[in-house]
Design goal:
Length: 117
C-alpha cells in the first residue's frame, strides 16, 4: 500500500522526509475535521504531517487515509519513497515494530538537521 503525506509545510518542511526514512503513523479519531485522520510523526519532533484524505491532495497511485483506515493498526509505519514540491509518497511497512523503531532512532541520531540542530 502506498500513501501520500501532506501538510508538512505547516510543521518542519521536508527535513524529516529523506528518501528511505521510516515515519510513525497513528490514527487520530478525535480529529474534529476528519474522523479518519492519520497523523504522521517522529519521536522528539512530534507531528510532521498527515496522510492525505482528500482527492485534491492524494498523489496518483496512492491510497487515501480513509481507504487504508481499516487495513492498518492504530499505530503503523511508513517509509519515504519519493518527494515532490507538495507531496511525499510513502509505502506502508510490514516489518516488526521493534525493528522499525530502532531504524527511526538511528535516523534521528544520524541527522541533526531533522531536530533543528
Amino acid at each position: 500500500m502506498y500513501v501520500t503525506v501532506t501538510g508538512f509545510a505547516h510543521h518542519y518542511g521536508k527535513k524529516p522526509f529523506d528518501i528511505g526514512n521510516v515515519l510513525i503513523c497513528e490514527k487520530e479519531p478525535s480529529n474534529r475535521y476528519d474522523s479518519e485522520a492519520i497523523i504522521v510523526r517522529l519521536p522528539i519532533i512530534g507531528k510532521i504531517g498527515y496522510l492525505a484524505n482528500s482527492v485534491s491532495c492524494i498523489a496518483g497511485g496512492t491510497m487515501s487515509a480513509g481507504r487504508i483506515y481499516d487495513k492498518v493498526e492504530d499505530k503503523f509505519y511508513i517509509r519515504v519513497l519519493f518527494t515532490t514540491q507538495s507531496k511525499v509518497i510513502c509505502r506502508v511497512e510490514t516489518d516488526d515494530s521493534e525493528t522499525l523503531e530502532q531504524e527511526i532512532q538511528k535516523q534521528l541520531m544520524a541527522n541533526d538537521d531533522m531536530l533543528g540542530k
